[in-house]
């Protein structure tokens, strides 16, 4: 693991050192497992007290914590953001040598940048293009006419169906399937007739997609994931869905076909969104919500069926009072029955 002095870390984070600037730090760990010579971090008073009592040599903290003299502090405006920035220094991603593994199957018409890495047993189809610095881990399958931009990383067993397009710095975790057929059928003469799914999936720059997530290609046109959006594991995104920029979609979410989601939307775990809806910018959907209506921008909805959070909270409070209300009604009925 690489080592850095306290002042080197502070300079990278735009922070300042309180204590020994030449202190060498050779690791990063949580307070309860930090060893001498390692850096830890604290974002609240409880964490700070644990960090001060730990074996760590230095603590990454926000500006509002007072030094006690026992630890070198690296002061930053926001400890959580600094934590995210500093981890790659101590835990850099493994390097992959440019080139194509001998076991990979690559079409003669595919174009792969010389700086890209194509791992064991990968498959790259006709006319596919792989950008500079992109890494395809083992058993990745890239179908014909796919475009994979620069500095992407596809983990083992990722599958891109034909005509899928990835922007730059896209990360797709193991087992994800991008561009499979949308679930489209019409009932005809007593059976379900398949509607051919001839569109594509377009994923813009800086998107991350979790393990075993599926994003279906459009019937016509494109299913689109906007720049900077982060999608967790086990998410299902149906055909012709559009998700805007910088959204968060948490695990086990299901989004039905042709729904349009705005920018900076948060969709919490196990939310289900019906098809052909419009979800505005900066909407928050609480966990396990069942969304069946359009939602204007900036609102928070929860419940199943989902409603504005203040409405659902009032209903939940009313339900909590029901047992007492039923007892009171029963008592009133008994008194009335006893009257002459």
Task: Describe this protein's structure.
The chain has 340 residues and is of the alpha/beta class. The protein has two domains: 4-90, Udp-n-acetylmuramoylalanyl-d-glutamate--2,6- Diaminopimelate Ligase, Chain: A, domain 1 (3-Layer(aba) Sandwich); 100-308, Hexapeptide repeat proteins (UDP N-Acetylglucosamine Acyltransferase, domain 1, 3 Solenoid). Helices cover 17% and strands 29% of the residues. The chain contains four helices and 39 strands. The strands form six sheets. It has a twelve-stranded mixed sheet with strand order 7-10-13-16-19-24-27-30-33-36-38-39. Strands 8-11-14-17-20-25-28-31-34-37 form a ten-stranded parallel sheet, with no helix packed on it. The radius of gyration is 27 Å and the shape is flat. The N and C termini lie far apart (88 Å).
- CATH-assigned fold name of the largest domain: UDP N-Acetylglucosamine Acyltransferase, domain 1
- Helical content stands at 10-25%
Q: Write down how many β-strands occur, each being a DSSP E stretch of 2 or more residues.
A: 39
User: Biggest sheet, strands in spatial order?
Assistant: 7-10-13-16-19-24-27-30-33-36-38-39
CATH architecture of the largest domain, please?
3 Solenoid
Apparent shape: flat
Unreliable residue stretches: none
Mean pLDDT: 95
Annotated CATH homologous superfamily of the largest domain: Hexapeptide repeat proteins
Briefly, what CATH class of the largest domain?
A: Mainly Beta
Structural class: alpha/beta
Radius of gyration: 27 Å
User: How many separate helices?
Assistant: 4
Largest sheet: 12 strands, mixed
Report the span from N to C terminus: 88 Å
Q: How many domains?
A: 2
How much strand content do the residues show?
A: 25-35%
Oligomer: single chain
């Amino acid at each position: 693991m690489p080592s850095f002095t306290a002042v080197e870390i502070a300079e990278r984070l735009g922070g300042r050192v309180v204590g020994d600037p030449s202190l060498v730090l050779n690791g990063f760990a949580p307070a309860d497992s930090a060893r001498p010579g390692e850096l830890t971090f604290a974002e609240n008073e409880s964490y700070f007290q644990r960090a001060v009592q730990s074996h760590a040599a230095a603590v990454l903290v926000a500006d509002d914590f007072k030094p006690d003299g026992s630890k070198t502090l690296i002061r930053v405006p926001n400890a959580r953001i600094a934590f995210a920035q500093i981890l790659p220094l101590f835990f850099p991603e493994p390097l992959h040598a440019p080139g194509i593994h001998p076991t990979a199957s690559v079409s003669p018409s595919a174009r792969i940048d010389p700086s890209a890495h194509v791992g064991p047993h990968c498959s790259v189809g006709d006319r596919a293009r792989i950008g500079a610095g992109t890494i395809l881990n083992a058993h990745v399958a890239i179908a014909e006419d796919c475009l994979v931009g620069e500095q992407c990383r596809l983990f083992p067993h990722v599958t891109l169906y034909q005509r899928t397009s990835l922007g730059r710095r896209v990360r797709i975790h193991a087992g994800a399937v991008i561009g499979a057929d949308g679930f489209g059928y019409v009932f005809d003469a007593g059976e379900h007739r398949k509607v051919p799914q001839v569109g594509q999936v377009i994923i813009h720059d800086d998107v991350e997609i979790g393990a075993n997530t599926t994003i279906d290609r459009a019937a016509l046109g494109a299913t689109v994931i906007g720049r900077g959006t982060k999608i967790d594991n086990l998410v299902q995104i149906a055909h012709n869905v559009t998700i805007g920029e910088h959204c968060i979609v948490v695990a086990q979410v299901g989004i039905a076909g042709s729904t349009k989601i705005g920018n900076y939307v948060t969709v919490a775990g196990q939310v289900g969104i019906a098809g052909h809806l419009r979800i505005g910018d900066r909407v928050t959907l609480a966990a396990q919500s069942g969304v069946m209506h359009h939602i204007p921008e900036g609102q928070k909805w929860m419940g199943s069926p989902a409603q504005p959070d203040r409405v659902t909270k009032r209903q939940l409070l009313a339900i909590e009072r029901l047992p007492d209300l039923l007892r009171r009604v029963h008592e009133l009925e008994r008194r009335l029955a006893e009257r002459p």
